[in-house]
Amino acid sequence: MGGPLGAIIGRYPAAAGVDAEGQIGGGGGSGSDGGIIRHNRKCRDLVFLVIFIAFWVAMIVNSSFGFNQGNPLRLTYSLDYKGNVCGNRHADPDLRELDVRYWLDPNQVYLSGVKDSRFDLADARSICLMECPIPSEDGLNWVCDYPEGDIRLSVDDWINRDYDYYEFLTPEMRNTSLQLQGPCYPVIFPSVNVHWSCQFIVRASNVSLKHWQQMGGVNIDENIIIDKTIHKTINSPSSVLKRYVADIGKAWPVLIVCGGIVPLFLSVIWLLMIRHFVAGMTWITVILFNALVISVTMLYYAKAGWIGDDALSVVIGESDPYIRISGREINHLRVVAILMTIVMIIAFLSSIAIVRRILIATSVLKVAAKVIGEVQALIIFPILPYVVLAIFYMFWFSAALHLFSSGQILKNDCSGNCCAFDLKSNKVNCDNCCGYSIHYTPHIGLSILFHLFGCYWATQFIIACSSTVIAGSVASYYWARGEISPEIPFLPVFSSMKRLLRYSLGSVALGSVIVSVVEWIRFILEAFRRRLRHTDPAPATFFGKFMSSSSHYCLGCIDWTIRSVNRNAYIMYTLIAITGKGFSRASVIATGLIMNNILRIGKVNVIGDVILYLGKLCVSLFCALFAFLMLDTYKYKSAHNKISSPLFPVLVTWGLGYIVATLFFAVVEMSIDTIILSFCQDTEEHQGTAQCAPLLLIETLDGQGEMQRLTQGP
Question: Are 50 and 390 a contacting pair, CB within 8 Å?
């Protein structure tokens, strides 16, 4: 591999000395250079650091577009016939507290639902109200258009009168109202607030309908199409996606507590338990993981309505308990509940399968426990990247909400034939029939994809920086034979951070972008594979069968290659920290070291990584469980803070918890990887006997026999 690694990265204290070029020479552990990685380093992969900086400039520009054009209110509330967002205090008129969209003309709603109709529900006349109106029990209630023109009422007075100024109408206005042309419209059907839109219940009030007919009103269609049309609009895929994104904005306190504070607290506790109670941590992790999976699965079952009486409700506020309205959100919860059931079964069976290997995992974790005990600053260090990630995510989520709502409000190009009374011109107007919609251009979709990729790259970059610092600190500990100065416990971490900032940021930027790109390629390949699966499953011709088999084989090979690159990335970060090489050169060294010691590295890492992975899942699942409980409180089940579904906030909380756990668990993961890589290299340089393994490390693994048993293949 081009020279001994020990000579590359530092001097051996209390051994034969090394000269300035790294050759073995005299020196003791008490010297100023003892145990500290020394190497004639230089900045690596600067081009990719420049690319990363340019990427951040593009992220800021892209986010500024969202902040300038977006309005998160659009994700929750709908538009009225004037193009105003309900609840917008800057609209004309002032619509603060007027959050619910109500369609005035039931005949227009019916017409928009008729097959082959040229009239769309987006063009039906709708206004914003505080709550959905209900029919009168002994007469006829009216809902009138916004007061303007000759109607001398303020918006507040209009609200206080329950939106009814029919008594102030002129005879002409009353006549047009009876023709369902406004400005006042009868309340014939009851309605309920479903995701801030009034869902009609096609069960006309006999009293109200009788009064309407006696007054000479036009015929009103009583057809289930009215109900289905509004229900279809409210539950369209785009509307559901908007509500899911809006849920993240409404649940920001849950994200901060359950996605930030709770995983920080749990991760630190886990590291401390690894330090002081390593013998029982593997068993605790496996048992706790299964308990958390079962708990989260049961909560999904409850919200899906399969157990208990706490099923998700799509209705905002109070409603008739006999009225059952379903939505896509409930169906999605049921799908996730089924998936969690499968995960629960697999987790239980896997736990049984690895019981016999848990003792090996305990011995592996002892390595990290001893390093953490000697380099105690490693427990505190992940707080620094944690703070950086927290600041980044606050900016990123805010920008994401604005980008998702950054479409333009434009008037529809419709061909419907309708008329409505215009209070400003004081006459019936048949030329202003089209409503308004939010239009999304293709570049908005590209901006959102770029924003999502930016989040992944930035996250990988920060995690990679953290891993590199940890690897450098542990390498200092190993090659100094464990002689870390007790007076300066932070020295290895500070030195490793200095080397990262001065020499290796470009290499880390390159490694993180490779990991990000290959993960996106994996995502695209999975989507392509599913598409192939849903096409012709059994080609009739020999050529078709050959092409189908070849494509699946090629996709499998590409996927395996990508997974290998992704898995070995952290080992490459270890080599970057140890040698100071660029990412490409570190990849070559890592590949050679892995191939020469594949049985040694694999035997230790597989079981150790499984336990660490389960530990991360325990932290993230506990965050998801706590998020479920917070979202089940009154605050998030009523009024403006009501979320459409706990699905997205819980998933985001789970993801944030997993990322925070990754930052802290990297202390253990990188300690194991770095110690094992250094040990393997040490044994290669010294004919099978490690010379620089710290005495405390060997004692932890119960002597050299235990070390060889764990790290050597059969």
Answer: no
* Residue 110 exposure: Cα atoms within 13 Å on the Cβ side: 12
C-alpha to C-alpha distance for 103 and 120, rounded to whole angstroms? 13
- Nearest Cα neighbor of 388 from 465, 298, 300 is 465
pLDDT for 535 equals 55
Q: In whole angstroms, what is the distance from residue 444 CA to residue 529 CA? A: 27
CB 625 within 8 A of CB 296: yes
Is 0.85 surpassed by the pTM of this model? no
Question: Which residues lie below 8 Å from residue 378, measured CB to CB, with a gap of 6+?
Answer: 371, 372, 470, 473, 474, 493, 667, 671
Residues in CB range of 9: below 8 A, 6 or more apart: 37, 38, 39, 475, 479, 578, 579
User: Model confidence over 174-216: pLDDT tens digits?
Assistant: 999 898 887 999 998 888 888 889 988 877 777 888 888 888 8
Report yes or no: 657 and 628 within 8 Å, Cβ to Cβ: no
| Six-digit token string for 401 | 């909400």
- Distance in angstroms (rounded) separating the CA atoms of residues 191 and 302: 27
Q: Are 342 and 219 in contact (CB under 8 A)?
A: no
> 706 with 600: CB under 8 angstroms?
no
Q: How far apart are CA 151 and CA 177, in angstroms?
A: 15
- DSSP states along 446-472: HHHHHHHHHHHHHHHHHHHHHHHHHHH
As a whole number of angstroms, the distance between CA 503 and CA 580 comes to: 7
Distance CA 36, CA 473 (A): 9
d(CA 330, CA 369): 45
Distance CA 560, CA 568 (A): 12
Q: Which residues contact 674 (CB under 8 A, 6 or more apart)?
A: 470, 471, 474, 475, 478, 574, 577, 578
d(Cα 389, Cα 663) in Å, to the nearest integer? Answer: 10
Residue 675 in tokens? 């110690």
Q: What 3-state class would DSSP assign to 310?
A: coil
- The stretch 414-424 carries a mean pLDDT of 78
Q: Which H or E element spans position 141?
A: none
Nearest to 140 by CA among 193, 110, 178: 178
CA distances, 467 to each of 541, 569, 592, 593, 673 (Å): 52, 10, 21, 19, 11
- Mapping DSSP onto H, E and C, the string for 372-414 reads HHHCCHHHHCCHHHHHHHHHHHHHHHHHHHHHHCCCEEEECCC
- Cα angle for residues 227, 229, 232 (degrees, 5° grid): 105
- Dihedral angle of Cα 638, 639, 645, 649, to the nearest 10 degrees: -100
Q: How far apart are CA 57 and CA 664, in angstroms?
A: 29
Alpha helices in 155-197 (DSSP H): 155-160, 171-178
* 545 band by pLDDT with thresholds 50, 70 and 90: low
Cα separation, 650 vs 333, in Å, equals: 11
